[in-house]
């Protein structure tokens, strides 16, 4: 098997300067893909990632992944630079802890803009530039399949439930054009965003809920994503791949 199975492919990843997005950019580039690293505000991590990958193989593009005009500009920049899009990963998202009582209309609008509207319209704008055999990989969470969930995840899981249904129906829609649509649903993963505000005791408790007694790593998620981005997944469509070490089953 080729060590560069994604050679000649172009990947566009939103929210790609840190965490799972950055690990995915590195993983796909190591397999031969050229990558577009989208970020929302701080250019330094994105620029550092471009240097690590190589400026001939990666570019960084600032854009609000929840704004349709900026999504259009992001897609145009990708196509103007690399000519096409083979792999689309709407990774950007936020995780506010809000139960029903403490959710404001503004809270609802912000998360729906970035977590739902953004991926929806990114797919719409990118699809015309994607050919048969291309891959779209949306981001959900294993918590949508968990039997015990804290009320504070209500707003976040509302958005990710939409992503999972979007995945299933887009697979039927874009499958007619030969474009494969799947979703990755990570379990607890050790990113800066995940660690924020959690004590060492809490992190150990979360890890103990996994058969492997550890958190996932961004690299765990990136490797699973690379499978869905490759020709090896050519008969996988409309699926939610739960990458969590067995934390949830099904």
From TrEMBL:
The keyword Nuclease is annotated on this UniProt entry: no
Superkingdom of source: Eukaryota
GO molecular function: oxidoreductase activity, acting on CH-OH group of donors
Keywords on record: NADP, Oxidoreductase
Similarity section: Belongs to the short-chain dehydrogenases/reductases (SDR) family.
Cited NCBIfam families: PRK07231.1
Name of the protein in its database record: NAD(P)-binding protein
């Amino acid at each position: 098997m080729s060590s560069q199975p994604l050679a000649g492919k172009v990947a566009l990843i939103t929210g790609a300067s840190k965490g799972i997005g950055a690990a995915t950019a590195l993983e796909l580039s190591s397999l031969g893909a050229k990558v577009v690293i989208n970020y929302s505000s701080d250019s330094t991590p994105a620029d550092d990632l471009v240097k690590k990958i190589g400026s001939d193989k990666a570019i960084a593009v600032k854009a609000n992944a929840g704004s349709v005009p900026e999504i259009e500009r992001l897609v145009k920049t990708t196509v103007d630079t690399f000519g096409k899009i083979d792999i689309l990963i709407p990774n950007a998202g936020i995780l506010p802890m809000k139960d029903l009582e403490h959710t404001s209309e503004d809270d609802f609008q912000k998360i729906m803009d970035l977590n739902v509207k953004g991926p929806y319209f990114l797919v719409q704008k990118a699809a015309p530039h994607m050919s048969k055999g291309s891959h779209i990989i949306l981001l959900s969470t294993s918590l949508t399949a968990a039997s015990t969930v804290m009320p504070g995840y209500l707003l976040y899981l509302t958005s990710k439930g939409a992503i999972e249904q979007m995945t299933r129906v887009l697979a039927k829609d874009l499958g007619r054009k030969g474009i494969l649509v799947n979703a990755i649903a990570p379990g607890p993963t050790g990113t800066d965003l995940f660690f924020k505000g959690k004590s060492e005791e809490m992190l150990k408790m979360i890890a103990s809920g996994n058969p492997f007694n550890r958190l996932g790593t961004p690299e765990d998620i990136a490797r699973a994503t690379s499978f869905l981005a490759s020709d090896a997944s050519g008969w996988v469509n409309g699926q939610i791949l739960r990458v969590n070490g067995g934390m949830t089953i099904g």
